[in-house]
Amino acid sequence: SEILFLFQGYQGMVDGGDNIVEVSWESVSSILQVGGTVIGSARCKSFRTREGRLQAAYNLVQRGITNLCVIGGDGSLTGANLFREEWSGLLEELAQKGKIDEESVKKYAYLNIVGMVGSIDNDFCGTDMTIGTDSALHRIIEVVDAIMTTAQSHQRTFVLEVMGRHCGYLALVSALACGADWVFIPEYPPEEGWEDSMCVKLSENRARKKRLNIIIVAEGAIDSHNKPITSEKVKDLVVQRLGFDTRVTILGHVQRGGTPSAFDRILASRMGVEAVLALLEATPATPACVVSLSGNQAVRLPLMECVQMTQEVQKAMDEGRFFEAVRLRGRSFENNLNTYKLLSHKKPDAELPKTNFNVAVLNVGAPAAGMNAAVRAAVRVGITEGHKMFAVIDGFEGFSRGKIKEISWGDVGGWTGQGGSILGTKRTLPAKYLEKIADQMRTNNINALMVIGGFEAYLGLLELSAAREKYDEFCVPMVMVPATVSNNVPGSDFSIGADTALNTITDTCDRIKQSASGTKRRVFIIETMGGYCGYLANMGALAAGADAAYIFEEQFDIRELQANVEHLTEKMKTSIQRGLVLRNENCNENYTTDFIYQLYSEEGKGVFDCRKNVLGHMQQGGAPSPFDRNFGTKISAKAMQWISKKLQETYRKGKVFANTDDSVCLLGMRRRNLVFQPVAELKNETDFVHRIPKEQWWLKLRPLMKILAKYKTSYDVSDSGQLEHVAMHSPKEAETGAI
């Protein structure tokens, strides 16, 4: 089928002419890593008039276009919806005016439209994440991290203004991701007398030796009387009342710029496929739809319903029904808000319940970015629930040596943005220390365990639950939160740390590709981590626009290697200058990175030369990405709430006794929900030899990568989104599965 670009958005559609251009494969080569839009975008006044839309319809009919894929925010999508509704009327009018013949009216009777939401505000109802939101969060968090270091040196208060005229998503999530002291958003205005409460909170933090205060203000922030709260107003308040040295930073258009994050590249690639499938399946009877992501599941939603609901939010805000506005934003938004409220304000000790339960938190396995955010959330939620929280240093090995201490609310301040593991982590399994660990559990009277870690954490919990017959000390609720860059833990689509590693791989691939600009044709062979799990290699390849990714899960032989080399050689004979091949470190013991490098070097002689890179431990380092901070915080808070529930259920006659399978669980993200799964039940889903789950969701994205690298292959459409209605969720639901 013929694919056309409409340059400059609706303006290009109205102007027609050379704004409508047929595109080839090569014309979109290497635009993946470019921010903004290469086909331009414009706010268009004339498209808002019927004359403008009439002209646009004429231009589309002239080119025989009846399928439109619109990428934009709520304004663009509302316009698209109207255009589709008017289509047959517009064609009739054109025929009456003699601009088109009756034949054309019949031939082009139906216009199919599918929308993809591209908007940094994440303000479109029905979608968890819009394309561009994650990248905007990256920009905000980079700025906050930089400000953190200057503010640590001078005692300062920073007021940061972020975008979001009508939607507080960016402000809320960045506040959650950097542990801000206070946040102002349009959907949830502060209570009367907020000026006093905020100043009290800031001065308390100062008294606790916190050298830095960060206040985040959405540009559309309002108070409960719908009066704007500006960043200047907040600054003046702090200066007048407290005399703190206060600076305002307005981020402005920085948030729209920069290269897209790994998450956005993968999201946009998946949505692009969904959009094409939706257009191919569209009939005159199906409503115009929007493709989006709910959790980790692709869905299709009627465009009209999303637009109506988005307008409802604005209406609720205008009329002061703020509780309703938050609910209409969807479960993900509500969950973010509840988590922020839970973690940012410590209640006075007198108001906290006292449970007399002691809960220990430990990190197990290799370090992963976001572990510290998870520890912080666990500690703070635990304290709020009335438990005494203990931190174990250096995993199970440290536990056996008695490296355990009580940890307070203030001890975990500022941990969200720190990489690695502050508690220290080791790969050691508990089996050889059972006696000593049981002693420590008894001595410190530990009533529950929360383990944050990778595959070793999972094995560790299996070992501890097997040891319950011998040691009563292990008959307590235990929960695991998956944190490993490899994303190889059964029972969860994502693990904390994988997104940060993916961004590192993507950034590095971009740089490596750029290093060859101006030279002759070159192919790079890049080795990624992951043990036997191909997640990083596969998703890294998708996000960096690679030509091939060799992984253990999909066996390959010399014939396939040869076909890949030939395919790449053919491609390099065109205008394409650079090739990228990713290889998982353990994908094949004989076809090593060196072997593949030598093979490509030999076969590509005269067409391209080769270079190789082993990325190594840089994939475990770095500050956590916004996704990992957020995911770590929310999943860990939820795990802690589960522990509290289990402690109450298993507390009998003055002690905790839990020995059933469902008291040792792993909390994972499964498609659309967070689910607690007994580790005993996950055994059947695990390949213990290679330390990977037997079934992995992302393997379904393999064909997408191949298609994008110009291979002829079929795409499994069984998993594509089905049309469903925009659900209004009940407040209860926000507490259950949502991320």
TrEMBL record:
Cofactor or coenzyme needed: Mg(2+)
Pathway info: Carbohydrate degradation; glycolysis; D-glyceraldehyde 3-phosphate and glycerone phosphate from D-glucose: step 3/4
Catalytic activity: beta-D-fructose 6-phosphate + ATP = beta-D-fructose 1,6-bisphosphate + ADP + H(+)
Presence of the UniProt keyword Ligase in the record: no
InterPro entries, sorted: 6-Pfructokinase_euk, ATP_PFK, PFK_vert-type, Phosphofructokinase_CS, Phosphofructokinase_dom, PKF_sf
Pfam families, sorted: PFK (PF00365)
GO molecular function: 6-phosphofructokinase activity; AMP binding; ATP binding; fructose-6-phosphate binding; identical protein binding; metal ion binding; monosaccharide binding
The keyword Metal-binding appears for this protein: yes
Gene Ontology CC terms: 6-phosphofructokinase complex; membrane
Segments forming domain Phosphofructokinase: 2-278, 358-643
Keyword list, A-Z: Acetylation, Allosteric enzyme, ATP-binding, Cytoplasm, Glycolysis, Glycoprotein, Kinase, Magnesium, Metal-binding, Nucleotide-binding, Phosphoprotein, Transferase
PANTHER family assigned: ATP-DEPENDENT 6-PHOSPHOFRUCTOKINASE, PLATELET TYPE, PHOSPHOFRUCTOKINASE
NCBIfam families in alphabetical order: 6PF1K_euk
Protein name: 6-phosphofructokinase type C
Organism: Himantopus himantopus (Black-winged stilt)
Annotated gene: Pfkp
